[in-house]
C-alpha cells in the first residue's frame, strides 16, 4: 500500500526495535477494537507485563480486559493503552471517499468526480479491487464505514 509503512508483528516475535523508534519522544495512543492485542503489543515493545486474557475460542480474538486508559512512560515519551471499542462513531460527516490515501489517485479516473466507490459504474477504485492498489480487506472496511455513516444520516 502506498503512503503507509506496514509492520508485520506477532505476539511471539521479539524483534520490535524498528517499531519502537516510532514512539521515541512522542505521546502516542494505542487504540482499536476490543480484544485485538493492544495491551499485548504494549507489553512486547515495553517489556511490561500488564494483564491480558487468553484468546476466546468462539471469537478467535482476545477478551476485553483493559477497562480504563493507562499512561505508560516509554522511550522519552508516553504510550496510552486504551480500552477497546466495538465501533467507532464519527459525529461529523466526513468525505469518506476522499479519506483513503490508496483510493485518491485511482479516483481521478472514476467516471464521476464525486464517486463514492460503491454502486457507481466505471469506478476505477472498484476496477482495481483485489490488485495491489486496492486490497479487498481495505475496500470491505471502507464499505462498512460508508454504510455506518449513511445509516446515521
Helix and strand topology:
Blueprint: H1 17-20, E1 27-30, H2 38-46, E2 55-56, E3 61-62, E4 70-74, E5 77-81, H3 101-107, H4 124-127, H5 136-152
Parallel strand pairs: 1-5
Antiparallel strand pairs: 2-3, 4-5
Describe the structure.
Helix content is 27%, strand content 12%. It is α+β, with helices and mostly antiparallel strands. The chain has two domains: 17-81, no CATH class; 96-152, Orthogonal Bundle (Ribonucleotide Reductase Protein R1, domain 1). A hairpin with a 4-residue loop joins strand 2 and strand 3 (61-62). The chain is elongated and about 50 Å long. 14% of the residues are buried. The model has no long low-confidence stretch (mean pLDDT 78).
Report strand order across the widest sheet.
1-5-4
Radius of gyration: 19 Å
Number of domains: 2
Q: Count up the helices.
A: 5
Mean pLDDT, to the nearest integer, reads 78
Helices and strands, in N-to-C order?
Answer: HEHEEEEHHH
Report the major sheet.
3 strands, mixed
The 3D shape can be described as elongated
Counted beta strands:
5
Approximate helicity band: 25-40%
Protein name: GTPase YjeQ/EngC
Keywords: Hydrolase
GO molecular function, one term: GTPase activity
Domain EngC GTPase: 1-86
Tell me briefly what this model is.
With about 150 residues, this protein is α+β, with helices and mostly antiparallel strands.
